[in-house]
Amino acid sequence: MTTTPLLRLDGLTKSFGKVTVARDLTLSVGPGEALGIVGPNGAGKSSLFAMISGDLRPDGGTVWLDGREITRVPPHVRTRAGIGRTHQVPRPFEHLTVFENVLVCGHQGAALKGRRAWGHAMEVLDRTGLASLANIPAGRLTLLQRKRLEVARAMGTRPRLLLLDEVAGGLTEPEVLELVGVVRRLHADGLGIVWIEHVVHALVKTVGRMVCLAGGAVVADDAPLRVLADAKVRELYLGVMTEEDAS
Ligand SMILES: Nc1ncnc2c1ncn2[C@@H]1O[C@H](COP(=O)(O)OP(=O)(O)OP(=O)(O)O)[C@@H](O)[C@H]1O
Ligand SMILES: [Mg+2]
């Protein structure tokens, strides 16, 4: 018996004028699987997330969550159905505290109310290492803290599928490792994760499978080290990926 994928993208196509961001793209993510996505700038990675979250309508093809087609389902309904995403550029409510930012996501994204909403927000802050910053306005956070808050806000909506878009970008090495620890723990708790990242070694430490996208198409889909050793992938990353990145 085959299990129903948590997420399935079937023959997605999308172009902005002459720029194609999805080219007959077919991809599945299993329940509780952690998938990494790499690919050069402009490959269509963030656009893919936007099509999964419902922020961008594909020109063709279908999106499925747990065996249900959601291609035309609006973003807020997809959030309630279990899709949580971060944005490449963090988008907190700057004037609200860290706690309030996560609380709002629980209200809006998971219909949580009262004490359950508070309890859930506190639990998310614990799991993302932000509990000690709960009462700080988001506008005063450092980059690492903002990236963590972006993860916490997505977690606030109680997702079963967490989409992470370059949450390690711009962080120092120790900060990247801290974030890897957070994501690994979320995955260990059973969450399905798709993580787009240019900091390739963070992915290698976290995901069991990796996809390389270029020009809106899947160039490689395999175990992380096999993808990074793939000749086509190395050519795409020529001069960008070092030996250290791949190790
Ligand atoms: N709303 C839009 N309108 C027009 N062009 C767009 C739009 N969104 C994305 N694009 C273009 O589509 C291409 C893919 O963009 P996308 O953000 O998906 O790339 P990416 O793989 O996430 O790149 P990066 O690694 O730089 O984040 C780019 O050329 C971008 O300029
Ligand atoms: Mg992007």
Quick summary of this structure?
One of its GO terms (molecular function) is L-valine transmembrane transporter activity. The chain has a domain at 83-156.
Describe this structure as you would to a colleague.
- The chain is 38% helix and 24% strand.
- With 247 residues, the protein is α/β, with parallel strands linked by helices.
- It has a domain at 83-156.
- The chain has a six-stranded mixed beta sheet with strand order 6-7-8-3-9-10, sandwiched between helices. Strands 2-1-4-5 form a four-stranded antiparallel beta sheet, with helices on one face.
- β7 (161-165), α6 and β8 (192-196) form a beta-alpha-beta unit.
- The chain is globular, with a radius of gyration of 18 Å.
The number of helical elements comes to 10
Following the backbone from N to C, one meets helices and strands in this order, namely EEEHEEHEHHHEHEHEEHHH
User: Considering DSSP H and I runs of 4 or more, what fraction of the residues is helical?
Assistant: 25-40%
Strand content: 15-25%
Number of β-strand runs: 10
Give the class from helix and strand content and strand pairing.
alpha/beta
What's the overall average pLDDT, rounded?
93
Please give the alpha-carbon distance between the first and last residues.
Answer: 36 Å
Q: Which of globular, elongated, flat, extended, rod-shaped describes the shape?
A: globular
Low-pLDDT parts are none
Overall radius of gyration = 18 Å
Strand arrangement in the largest pleated sheet: 6-7-8-3-9-10
**Largest sheet, if any?**
6 strands, mixed
Bound molecules: adenosine-5'-triphosphate, magnesium ion
